[in-house]
Amino acid sequence: MIQTPRLLLRPVRETGDFAAMHAILSQAKAMAYWSTPPHDTEEQTREWLANMAQIAPATGEDFIVEFEGRVIGKAGFYRFPDVGYLFDPAVWGQGIGREAVGAVIARGFAVHRLPRVTADVDPRNKGSMRLLERLGFTETHRQTRTWLVGDLWCDSVYYELTREQWDQRTA
Questions:
Q1: Cis peptide before 81 (omega within 30 of 0)
Q2: Which structural domain range is residue 68 located in?
Q3: Helices (DSSP H) in 26-113: which residue ranges?
Q4: Distance CA 93, CA 17 (A)
């Protein structure tokens, strides 16, 4: 569990988090740059939450994010060292992504002793790219046609943040 000034990042509760996460995962706006289309069925969300709950501690650590007692998304490492996050569009633009993802990165370096953190972003997702750059990530390369989402091929921009870069920023 991680506590920040405004947020609680905690392990998933498959049944307790279902309604809020399904509401997010079924929104076209929230899922516009995700690696899958919006969830059409409750079963998709149940499977997604089960997969999140079953992440082995040696391979990743993913958190449900709460703001003012309400589930607003997820942030973490589905697989080390790749950071991922998804938030309800209702909270975009409030610095929540930076606060949540920054806390996850700090934990990744301090607790899991990761030498680096990486991210894969759709180049159309300017907000996510700005978030990563504000956190100190640098672009390493780009690749075309990396994700087939529904019937649309999407590209990727890859980012990296080393422990040394993080330590310099937070010293």
A1: yes
A2: 2-170
A3: 42-53, 96-110
A4: 23
* Interval 153-171 mean pLDDT: 92
- Asked whether the CA dihedral 5, 77, 130, 26 is positive or negative, the reply is negative
Structural Rg of the chain based on CA atoms? 15
Give CA–CA dist 96/98, Å, rounded: 5
Q: How many whole angstroms separate alpha carbon 153 and alpha carbon 56?
A: 30
Q: What are phi and psi of 86, to 5 degrees?
A: -155, 125
Express each pLDDT in 121-138 by its tens digit. Answer: 999 999 999 999 999 999
Residues 6+ apart with CB under 8 A from 109: 117, 163, 166, 167
Beta bridge partners of 162: 116
Specify the CATH number for the domain of residue 52: 3.40.630.30
Residue with tokens 């958190």: 63
Number of domains present in the structure of the chain = 1
> Quick one: DSSP state of residue 11?
-
CB atoms within 10 A of CB 3: 10
Residue 38's closest CA among 47, 50, 25, 49?
Answer: 25
- Give me 166's structure tokens: 């993080």
In this predicted model, what pLDDT tens digit does every residue of 79-107 receive, in sequence order?
A: 999 999 999 999 999 999 999 999 999 99
Token reading at 21 = 């996460």
